[in-house]
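Bug: token stream looks shifted between consecutive jobs. Job 1:
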Amino acid sequence: MVLHLLKPTIAYHVSTPNIIVANPNWPGNLEQVVKPLLVTLSVFVALVSRPTLAASCDSATTQADMNVCASNANQKSDKQLNDLYRQIVGLLAGDRAALELFNSAQRAWTVFRDSECKFVGSAYEGGSIQGMVVSNCLRTLTDLRVEDFRRFVACEEGGNDCYAEFVPPN
């Protein structure tokens, strides 16, 4: 039995069912043939197996599409948060103590957000919906933090509305 790869002149002889021996008369290197094939195959598999995203997240019907949409929405919120964070760092640049407190608060908030959403997602452990639930939780909490940051950035010096409003429960 003879296997032909790429060119009919490149022949490999099968000496046993599991062993392929290169034809000693062929001047080429086996790696020169196999590596490009493996790369091409890997790219093809990656493209084919990649979940397709619905034209609009409003019309997403598969769990894979909904997971991607939730992740994208979370990334968008996270970018807004990071942009505002950089603005606040710039505003606090002259007050080292306030900047350190702000950074400490942000680190603690990030730990809270991530832990809270991990907890919320744990109810769906192993399920295909878990990623969407976690992403939606992260986005919701991040959007709340974005609003806090927007109030801070819009604050006039000496104003009472510089920080998030804390209303005691009834």
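Job 2, same session, no restart:
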Amino acid sequence: MGSDRAASESSDASKEGMAWDRRFQVWSYSVSHRLLLLWSTKSAEHPSQVDVLFEDVRAMELATTLLALRIDAVDCSGFPTVTGVGRDGAKCYGIRAGLSAGYVVARGLRTHEGQEEYFERSPLLPTTNAL
């Protein structure tokens, strides 16, 4: 099923910043794998689905619904109390969505844009039943 879909995926693209003018939701968080999935489903206005997966999440503060999402790599010096910041490859990502601002501290970030339907699992998630 997944092999015939036109899709694009990028890894850690936040170095230059990423932005989408569409609605995202916090779709899932797995404590065991520390995976945070933000998901923007297809709609009449947006014919593709966009997934944003943060991997090995150390800390986060963000709204559950995000309109006009922007993600940028930011300086970690403002996060001295977060365990793991700056160690083991953990990076800080600034999250902006409309008037809302937040952050995610994680070791990785991947995105995917494809034709998945609402009920289908994100191709960025592990194939195990972790989530």
